[in-house]
Amino acid sequence: MPLLRTLPFFLVLVVGGGLAIGYLTTPGSWYAGLEKPAFNPPNWLFGPVWAALYVLIALAGARIWLRARQSSVMRLWWIQLVLNFAWSPVFFSLHMIGSALLIILLLAAAVIAFVIASWRIDRMSALMFLPYAAWVLFAGLLNGAILLLN
């Protein structure tokens, strides 16, 4: 089955990349000292949520790769991954809350564009991105609130 041959690459890329970036850009004392909104989730929640989302992102990427690797949908998938991986270093390492907000807004746009564009090619991939879209929109709201509070 082609998916079983392709999926490991995407899992290593997405889950491995996400874990590596998370390890290299831990929130630390700077983040702990920031004012946060009342709706800020507990820190322990972010790891499991992102791990689950990264598996869905990898699976959707592998499915689109097999169906339309030269398409605009696949390009959107790569764009969202670059933006996703850029956010943590900009926010947690560079402490650039405003720039991180711009990145996450672009990420939300790319994720939503992927959902819309992939709907015709592979509805399952589009559906797998819906929880990701919801979380990124929430994270954008959180990022914006932190910017306003600090």
From TrEMBL:
Membrane topology classification: Multi-pass membrane protein
Pfam families given in the database record: TspO_MBR
Subcellular location per the Swiss-Prot or TrEMBL entry: Membrane
TM stretches of this protein: 7-25, 45-66, 73-90, 96-117, 129-149
Location, primary (coarse class): membrane
Keyword Plastid: no
InterPro entries: TspO/MBR-related_sf (IPR038330), TspO_MBR (IPR004307)
Tree of life domain: Bacteria
Keywords in alphabetical order: Membrane, Transmembrane, Transmembrane helix
Family note: Belongs to the TspO/BZRP family.
Annotated protein name in UniProt: TspO/MBR family protein
Species classification: Bacteria, Pseudomonadati, Pseudomonadota, Alphaproteobacteria, Hyphomicrobiales
